[in-house]
């Protein structure tokens, strides 16, 4: 066993935090100082060109909207328009995917950055009054850019100023605003307690608003379930600009926003969460295996073991293409990353009894406080100060396309061997497998809109990234992504082929422009929510019958 020290460990690539150079995937800590440190002149020029595509009457509409804000709100919220020199910087700061910052990408008429809840109320009222669509952005990690892109005249409601975390250790709860990040929430908990934590994701820069409303998962899910399984209350601005809490919104709407996507129902202001108990020390480990070291056999066995281990243990798998020991050749490396809610003297014998193929040794293990484990899971070097959790990347570094799947039966060894061939051919690809079981199998699939519970061995994320610009290059990699996804069909869930809403994918179905068609929505709705989609539609019809809150994959009213 090793205590945390200033040594670089083999990195883990955590979902939603990836930066990439041509042949390597770089973790969160590296992405804080991305390859693009300032906005290049070419980007600024492209941005100015894109403004020419705004509607001809947009300036008058914008003027009326701004005037309405001043008349409706007790104070004026910060507003950034294309006339402000800071406008491109504010827009770009929370864009994570360079696919959605191109000359032809639609830009908002304005960015409203509320500093008070009343600013959100006024934005909803005035946007509705003047026929503007709202896109709601908390952290900007929507994989398809739906929180800051629209084909219709729109404003971005940017929640980054609403980021407070108010702790109450007496009743073991906290209120966290939607504009805070996961890292800021973790940091606040760590500053107040050594024996409390929370079950959320492993990427510190992900925004609370989108993460929670999509369900949210992380390394504590086998012990405590999803993020939304630990939410007790919420505050939301509805279509009429009224602030509601759990009591006033009712249980149907409270159910819907906990995994059904908040942006279909209103603007989430904040969440009340139930803190969870963690031991003073947890144990983390990394074990890497290349194909030449028996990675296929170990991974094959992991499928049988990981979902059935005690719920205190979480072993995630990261898969990527690396240089082989044979010159000029590529191989696949499988990284097993574990978290144990306890000390290593109990973990090592337990894993070696249940999962001897992994070959876990004492030297692989690091004991640390829970708050330090969140930095570890973000793939930062051991010894990195926890202040890193407060950092936010300043600009998008990569183009990427992501997809997701669920596996219900173990993939045979020959199946993995065929997958390896495809990954090596693509090269700039990464996969992550997250084990289920434990608490995830005990909660009904209808308890929240998030239906992926019992019956799943693990989830899969596919992530293809590139640095080269140009539509031809983008189309090439998207085509590769679709080919890989198609090739996985024999090994994953069917009827429907399930998908994770937090990993947005427009390929599985979409509504375009200003009309949310029920039959089109059902295509993606069944994959994200299964039969919970029907109840989500009922709630939408009840709270937003005119479909003001909408986007390309929103819930439709009847």
Structural notes for this entry:
This protein has 558 residues and is an alpha+beta fold. 30% of the residues lie in helices and 20% in strands. The chain has helices spanning 28-31, 41-50, 58-72, 87-93, 117-129, 182-192, 208-213, 221-224, 246-249, 251-257, 295-305, 344-354, 370-377, 413-426, 471-487, 518-529, 532-543; strands at 19-21, 24-26, 79-80, 110-112, 133-137, 154-158, 165-168, 173-177, 196-197, 231-237, 243-244, 267-274, 276-277, 282-290, 313-323, 330-340, 365-368, 399-407, 429-435, 458-466. The strands form five sheets. A seven-stranded antiparallel beta sheet has the order 17-14-16-15-19-20-18. The relative contact order is 0.14. Residues 4-26 and 30-37 have low confidence and may be disordered.
């Amino acid at each position: 066993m090793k205590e945390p020290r200033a040594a670089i460990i083999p990195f883990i690539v955590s979902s939603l935090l990836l930066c990439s150079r041509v042949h390597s995937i770089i973790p969160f800590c590296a992405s804080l100082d991305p390859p693009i440190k300032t906005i290049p002149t070419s980007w600024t020029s492209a941005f100015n060109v894109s403004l020419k595509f705004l509607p001809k009457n947009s300036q008058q509409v914008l003027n009326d909207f701004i005037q309405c804000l001043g008349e409706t709100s007790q104070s004026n919220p910060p507003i950034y328009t294309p006339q402000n020199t800071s406008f491109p910087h504010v827009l770009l700061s929370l864009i994570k995917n360079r696919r959605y910052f191109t000359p032809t990408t639609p830009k908002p008429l304005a960015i409203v950055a509320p500093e008070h809840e009343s600013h959100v109320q006024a934005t909803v009222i005035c946007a509705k009054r003047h026929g503007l669509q709202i896109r709601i952005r908390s952290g900007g990690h929507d994989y398809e850019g739906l929180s800051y892109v629209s084909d219709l005249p729109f404003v971005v409601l940017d929640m980054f100023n609403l980021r407070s975390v108010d702790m109450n250790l007496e009743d073991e709860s906290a209120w966290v605003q939607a504009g805070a990040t996961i890292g800021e929430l973790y940091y606040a908990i760590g500053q107040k307690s050594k024996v409390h934590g929370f079950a959320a994701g492993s990427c510190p820069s992900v925004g609370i608003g989108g993460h929670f409303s999509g369900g949210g998962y992380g390394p504590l899910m086998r012990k405590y379930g999803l993020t939304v399984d630990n939410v007790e209350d919420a505050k939301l601005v509805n279509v009429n600009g009224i602030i509601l809490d759990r009591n006033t919104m009712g249980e149907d709407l409270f159910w819907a926003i906990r995994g059904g996507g908040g942006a279909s129902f209103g603007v989430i202001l904040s969440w009340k969460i139930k803190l969870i108990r963690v031991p003073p020390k947890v144990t983390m480990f990394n074990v890497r295996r290349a194909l030449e070291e028996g990675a296929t056999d170990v991974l094959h066995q992991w499928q049988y073991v990981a979902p059935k281990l005690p719920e205190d243990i979480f072993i995630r798998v990261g898969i990527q293409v690396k240089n082989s020991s044979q010159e000029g050749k590529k191989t696949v490396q499988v990284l097993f990353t574990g978290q144990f809610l306890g000390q290593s003297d109990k973990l090592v014998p337990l894993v070696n009894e249940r999962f001897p193929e992994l070959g876990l040794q004492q030297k692989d293990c690091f004991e640390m406080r829970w708050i330090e484990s969140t930095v570890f899971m973000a793939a930062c070097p051991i010894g990195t100060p926890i202040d890193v959790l407060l950092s936010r990347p300043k600009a998008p570094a990569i183009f990427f396309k992501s997809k997701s799947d669920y596996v219900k039966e173990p993939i045979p060894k020959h199946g993995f061997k065929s997958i390896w061939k495809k990954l090596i051919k693509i090269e700039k690809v990464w996969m992550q497998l997250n084990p289920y079981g434990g608490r995830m199998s005990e909660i009904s699939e209808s308890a929240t809109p998030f239906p992926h519970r019992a019956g799943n061995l693990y989830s899969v994320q596919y992530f293809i990234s590139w640095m080269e610009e140009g539509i031809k290059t983008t189309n090439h990699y998207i085509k590769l992504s679709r080919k890989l996804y198609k090739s996985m069909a024999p090994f994953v869930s069917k009827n429907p082929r399930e998908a994770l809403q937090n990993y947005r994918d427009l390929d599985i179905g979409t509504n375009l422009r200003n009309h949310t068609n029920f039959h089109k929505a059902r295509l993606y709705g069944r994959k994200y929510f299964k039969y919970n989609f029907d109840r989500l539609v009922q709630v939408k019809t009840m709270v937003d019958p005119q479909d003001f809150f909408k986007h390309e994959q929103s819930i439709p009213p009847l």
